[in-house]
User: Which sequence fits this backbone?
């Protein structure tokens, strides 16, 4: 039967979430550049190409 005082070892695990802030910043800069290039291209089309049509 079960003994009233069993010794049971409990393993504790501590999970640390690490976020690499340099990767986050680099990704933000990359997508910001994509957006600026896209809107720059749209501006070029509206300003210089569409008036020719």
Assistant:
């Amino acid at each position: 039967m079960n003994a009233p005082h069993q010794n049971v070892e409990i393993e504790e695990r501590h999970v640390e979430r690490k976020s690499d802030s340099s990767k986050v910043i680099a990704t933000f800069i990359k997508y910001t550049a994509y957006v600026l290039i896209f809107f720059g291209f749209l501006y070029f089309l509206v300003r210089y190409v569409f008036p020719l049509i």
About this structure: Residues 21-49 form the longest helix (29 residues). Residues 21-52 form one domain.
